[in-house]
Amino acid sequence: MGKLVVLALLGAALALIVAFRQRFSASREVEPVEPRNCQLIEGIENGSEDIDILPSGLAFISSGLKYPGMPNFAPNKPGQIFMMDLNKPNPSIQELSISNGFDKASFNPHGISTFIDEDHNVYLYVVNHPRMESTLEIFKFEEQQRSLVHLKTIEHELLKSVNDIFVVGPEQFYATRDHYFANHFLTLLEMLMDFRWSHVLFYSPKEVKVVAKGFNSANGITISPDKKYIYIADATDKSICVMKIHDNWNLTQLKVIHLDTFVDNLTVDPDTGDVLAGCHPNGWKILFYNPKDPPGSEVLHIQDVLSEKPKINTIYANNGSVLQGSSVAIVYNRKLLIGTVFHKALYCEL
User: Fold this and answer.
1) Please, what's the b/e burial string for 326-349 (b: 16 or more CB within 10 A of its CB; e: otherwise)?
2) pTM of the full structure
3) Residue 50 labeled ligand binder
């Protein structure tokens, strides 16, 4: 009887592993797709998880994310925010200094979003995970000094496991919660069992509320150029959810675009309205990192997002030999930046 129980448990464990590998595309590889004029960005070695670009061409890059279950090549080094001027012929990065009074030693930046007020002041909102908690930091960008002045830390009981944000007004933003459990093993189980306890919330000084539910792992979030629709990446569901924004900031699902890759951050080309998605083609390799067989990278370009049949093209793909674990892609004036969770960053001229 005991042997039968052991065999049954082994069989169940094996079935669970097989199911897990299938769900996370453990055997998927990508054929290389690389623009001709690409080069790694010198100075970025520990990730470029999220990127946002001002209309002026200044790009902000968050680096050094320490995230449960993900590798980190500089675990004792605080996170950083880099800037890159895409108007220059051969742009290079520069680290932005952060004002005194902010706990820079525990800075652990994740998703970022910029906001420009009526007086043309630029603010950078940063998802931060000090001591693996979730806060939202508001900085004012001082362009002449190339610095960030810390203005405020936002904390709230609903701001848990925050992944990405999109700012829609002064201290008003949408935020994604990518998992429910804090424990890494339970998080993996949550994704495997498809609990769909992940959600999107809206924050303002007057009201904080959940505005969309039922995601497996709500990740990147962005908005259409006309400000009428929100696009949400559901990473482990391998999909992008298109939602309509209502006057009270609530969201209603219009459609879901199903893909064959794990979607991370999303950006929108302001000129065309096309969506760019930084993706992980093989979820198993990103979760169980092996430097001898690293995770690849994939960038999708999605046109006609609101139509019945959006056009989806792969504009970058690499097996990990150049870029590992792409998390974001963003364009400006025929220039493309591709960031990663924990690795390098790529600059391409299209």
Assistant:
1) bbbbbbbeebbbbbbbbbbbbbbe
2) 0.94
3) yes
